[in-house]
Amino acid sequence: MAPCATAGAQMLAARPCVSASQSMLASRAAVSRIDLALGASSFASCPRISCSRSLGSSRSSPVAVRAVSGEGSSSGLPIDLRGKRAFIAGVADDNGYGWAIAKALAASGAEILVGTWVPALNIFETSLRRGKFDESRKLPDGSLMEIVKVYPLDAVYDSPEDVPEDVKTNKRYAGSSNWTVKEAAELVKKEYGSIDILVHSLANGPEVTKPLLETSRSGYLAAISASSYSFVSLLKHFLPIMNPGGASISLTYIASERTIPGYGGGMSSAKAALESDTKVLAFEAGRKGKIRVNTISAGPLGSRAAKAIGFIEKMIEYSYVNAPLQKELLADEVGNTAAFLVSPLASAITGSTVYVDNGLNTMGLAVDSPTVSSLL
């Protein structure tokens, strides 16, 4: 994501609608543990979801299937998402914020469906089948996160009518179908009936390395389309199949409100639009479907997609040195926050931008600056 975690990084991928995995902020360290917040016990006791099925299995009944109740009770305030189904748009590998969010939701008991950028679909599914991601799929109880189904998705296109001929005939899209936002939502409805959680973890700025003054109109609009409007489109088409009381989240970055030199191509504008849209969508989706809408402003993390920015390592170093909490920011910390925001524990939180950046957003001065370092 912009460091937006997914958003930022992913945003940089070559084509719009790159997965959040690409999400520019995948964690540098393997996301191996999900220590859910709020004093909850490690979710080792959460039972497996009865409706889960292996990757590529046949479609399920349109009637929502509920999870089997677990035996015993956990202490404190556990994040319990058993019986909930999540669709996560923007997962193409195992080192981005989208993946970390999927793990946190799975550890809390949710059933996981993902949408993967079409050109990355074959590699992602092959890696899953061959066990390449098995180590990073491990949940707190020792089991492996199960992705019930992977859907092809290019959120830059709302419906088949919007897809240009050169994309339809592109070999990277060969063999895939029903990958526009509208078609993906219809297919999820047909196969699973409904969802409870919608996650937008994708973005792209084809000219992200260019200063704003050098960004073309097409590059600027492409960034807005892939990184901001894609969230509007996803919520528009999935809202009709979301159960009342559900929640949606996206990933943003502080470049939306502060100047980040080098983070160009209109991506800062796209993030600002995403945060503004979050407030409006919270009102509209709340009134129309009783759905909560929030966004997470994540700090910089070194995912593969984030490297497209060109200086992600420097951003990470700057954050470490200047943030109030001087520690590495891990992808699972963003995942934990997402699990909280879509859970009943956050039932009164909507329209908010939640910062998960070790507090960097609160700083007005760089403490490593020679100008102020002598005062500290």
Tell me what you see in this structure.
This protein has 376 residues and is of the alpha/beta class. The protein has a single domain (85-359), classed as Rossmann fold (3-Layer(aba) Sandwich), CATH 3.40.50. It is built from 10 helices and 7 strands. The protein has helices spanning 6-11, 97-107, 118-129, 165-168, 181-192, 217-238, 267-289, 312-322, 331-341, 370-373, and strands spanning 85-89, 111-117, 147-153, 195-200, 242-252, 292-298, 353-356. Strands 3-2-1-4-5-6-7 form a 7-stranded parallel sheet, with helices on both faces. α5 packs parallel to α6 (217-238) and α6 (217-238) packs parallel to α7. The protein is globular. The chain starts with 5 loop residues before the first helix and ends with a helix.
Descriptive terms for the model:
globular, 7-stranded parallel β-sheet, alpha/beta, 31% helix, 376 residues, Rossmann fold
CATH architecture: 3-Layer(aba) Sandwich
Uncertain segments of ≥5 residues (pLDDT<50)? 1-73
What percentage of the residues does DSSP assign to strands (E)?
A: 5-15%
Count of individual domains: 1
Query: Looking at CATH, which topology would you report?
Result: Rossmann fold
Terminal CA distance reads 32 Å
Order of helices and strands: HEHEHEHHEHEHEHHEH
Specify the number of helices: 10
Number of strands: 7
